């Protein structure tokens, strides 16, 4: 292993979990294989409710580092991570999801990325597993890879909107100064925290080698529900947290989407009942396109329906389609004068 900058720091690894016993086992096995001093690893597994025996399983297994199991009634990942933060020892916290399996050098690379800096949030990539089949998950991983490449190339600066706590690390002191996660957010709670960290002077960096494999197995309906909830969360951040720039940004991004995506979203917002069969149609067509080697068509279909459901969530939270139209109109001129990567509004693993 290449030497770290100075003495290696300690990490409290916080993993919220709910009904994913077998997946969590793979995550813990990945941590046990880390090329990092075992005495500097402190793992907190936070069972956010659940009835699958996760807590008992973890307590019964030996690991080469302390593993503390915390339990609470189901309150969502933000509350679960806050419980972990209350017990963390630091000085760094690494957040992992319970379906994100770390590579052996994950902790070493997070430590390397922080180096001697005291003001960084390090974002590591979430890589797809071998044999991924679902078109919507393949589309998501491909889109994330485009984002990773753009950040590496300097075409897109990492920001709170890329602060995915499936694989990210921050100093414990910053997390506590920021007040932890807002448990009122059941979706995009990490991005909301990211904006508060940014206001404290924390800078965001992407580090390719701090990698983990995301064992995604999300059904199509759940994937669309995520898109809807991200739309609602962005409006909540604007309305409740004063982050009005978020809605301005997504409105500009909309004007850079593919023309077919823009038409689909506008049609769906205006004729929601007529558009209601679209998920079934898109799911079948995307599978067929992928099976016949037409992946670009499959990804285009997934992009369109994801964006549609994102804007459904945003529209419902704003309270009217007219409010969405006014928002889009307010940013049309500025969007025309700017250039941007054509990434989906909010793709999240």
Label this structure with key terms:
2 domains; three-stranded mixed β-sheet; disordered N terminus; 10 strands; 13% strand; alpha/beta; 349 residues; Spore Coat Polysaccharide Biosynthesis Protein SpsA, Chain A; single chain; disordered C terminus; 51% helix
Describe the structure.
Helix 2 (54-60) links the parallel strand 2 (41-48) and strand 3 (67-72). The protein folds into 2 domains: 11-214, Spore Coat Polysaccharide Biosynthesis Protein SpsA, Chain A (Alpha-Beta Complex), CATH 3.90.550; 220-336, no CATH class. The chain has helices at residues 21-32, 54-60, 77-87, 106-114, 135-153, 172-178, 189-199, 220-241, 244-254, 259-270, 272-275, 278-291, 295-318, 321-336, and strands at 11-17, 41-48, 67-72, 92-96, 100-102, 120-123, 126-127, 167-171, 203-206, 212-214. It is built from 14 helices and 10 strands. The chain is globular, with a radius of gyration of 20 Å. It has 349 residues and is an alpha/beta fold. Helix 9 packs across helix 14 (321-336) and helix 12 (278-291) packs antiparallel against helix 13 (295-318). The strands form 2 sheets. Strands 3-2-1-4-8-6-9 form a 7-stranded mixed β-sheet, with helices on both faces. A 3-stranded mixed β-sheet has the order 5-10-7.
């Amino acid at each position: 292993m290449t030497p770290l900058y100075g003495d290696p720091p300690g990490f409290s690894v916080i993993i919220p979990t709910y009904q994913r016993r077998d997946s969590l086992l793979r995550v813990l096995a990945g941590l046990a294989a880390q090329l990092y001093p075992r005495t500097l690893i402190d793992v907190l597994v936070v069972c956010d409710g659940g009835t699958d025996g996760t807590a008992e399983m973890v307590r019964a297994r030996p690991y080469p580092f302390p593993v503390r199991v915390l339990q609470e009634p189901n309150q969502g990942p933000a509350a679960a991570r806050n419980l972990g933060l209350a017990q963390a020892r630091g000085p760094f916290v690494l957040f992992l999801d319970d379906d994100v399996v770390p590579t052996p050098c994950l902790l070493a690379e997070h430590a390397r990325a922080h180096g001697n800096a005291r003001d960084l949030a390090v974002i590591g990539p979430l890589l797809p597993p071998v044999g991924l089949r679902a078109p919507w998950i393949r589309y998501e991983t491909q889109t994330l890879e485009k984002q990773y490449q753009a950040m590496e190339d300097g075409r897109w600066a990492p920001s709170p909107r890329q602060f995915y706590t499936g694989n990210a690390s921050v100093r414990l002191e910053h997390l506590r100064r920021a007040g932890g996660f807002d448990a009122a957010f059941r979706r995009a709670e990490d991005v909301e925290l990211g904006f508060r960290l940014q206001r404290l002077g924390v800078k965001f960096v992407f580090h390719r080698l701090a990698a983990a494999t995301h064992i995604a197995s999300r059904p199509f309906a759940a994937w669309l529900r995520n898109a809807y909830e991200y739309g609602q969360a962005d409006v909540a951040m604007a309305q409740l947290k004063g982050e009005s720039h978020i809605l301005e940004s997504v409105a500009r991004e909309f004007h850079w989407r593919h023309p077919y995506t823009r038409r689909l979203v506008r049609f769906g917002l205006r004729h929601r009942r007529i558009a209601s069969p679209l998920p079934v149609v898109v799911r079948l067509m995307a599978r067929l396109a992928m099976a016949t080697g037409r992946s670009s068509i499959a990804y285009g279909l997934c992009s369109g329906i994801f964006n549609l459901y994102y804007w459904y969530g945003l529209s419902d939270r704003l309270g009217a389609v007219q409010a969405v139209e006014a928002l889009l109109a307010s940013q049309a001129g500025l969007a025309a004068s700017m250039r941007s990567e054509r990434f989906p509004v909010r793709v999240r693993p």
